[in-house]
Predict the 3D structure of the following.
Amino acid sequence: MEIRWLNIDEGENLWDQALSRFPEISFSLLYGWRKVYEKALRLKTYYLMVEEEGQVRGLCPLVYMKSPWIGRGSYLISLPYMTRAGICALDQEIREIMISRSIEKAREIKAGFVELRELAADRIPLIFSANDEHIQMVLDLPEDWARYEKEIAPRLRQVKKAQKAGLTIRTGRGEALLSDFYGVFSKRMRELLFPVYPKKYFEMIFEVFTRQAQLTIVYNQGKPLGGMVLFKFMDTCSAPYVASLVEHQASYPNQLLYYSAIRQAWEEGYRKFDFCRSQVDSGTFTFKSQWKAKPKNLIYQYPLCNGERPAPSIGQAQKSLAFSLARKIWPRLPLPVTQWLGGRLIRQLVLA
């Protein structure tokens, strides 16, 4: 058995080819994310692979982050900003080996936490400190579209109102669409008190994922009101980055945006539409449920905690002084300032 940490340029083909061997793989496991983390955000990555008799039996991507404020400490995370990633292993023995090696790496680089973001499942023994405050919302795309429209009749009425109001959809790639998306996204992130990713982050996504990534933007007379980044991978279309302008919510841009993306995924033959992560019983959870998405439980485990300290959590962070200050200051800052600061702060937001 060979267990090794891959150099950044050596594993892309082997890693991505091996993904099909593991069940329920997310787009976040694609090797290209390593380039995005390293080049767009300047974060150090460690990608672990286990091979036996020429066959890949285990994969685990990790990103090293430090945070002096919310979620204070240093972390090896699989993977930050993602709904889930964690360890891909063909059996429990391989999984335990990879956890052990991840802990060794954390101690070597003096990280205080290892965080594994995974689906909760019977095959994963919960032997470490963990939190379960997040869920993944997934829609099994219908065979009969007309029947699905009847099931989402209230949303469909809103979509028709958006269309009647003159809202239109554009899909594709390119600098013009990305600039429109980023303007809306960064404004919405300011409202949500969330440091926005630098524009370079999204530019790198579209540079690396030339086949998987797409933009969908909703417009009113040429003005962008909302947008999403879609990832198309295996049998699933995922929407990890979505935003629309609150001041235009009366014309339902968000509903038209999701309807159009879901319809396109169905027409292209995908089996699932992944609404990605929500907190349990949040407003986004309710919204996604209205599209008939179903929750999948997530478990974020912390192997280095061993019950000696509480697992980090969003709820814990929201009680912090740093979050209280952000609540008062962030929405009042000019948008260009939050865009500039966001690109620096997001590198330290370990709970994102």
User: Anything to note?
Assistant: The chain has a mean pLDDT of 89. The radius of gyration is 20 Å.
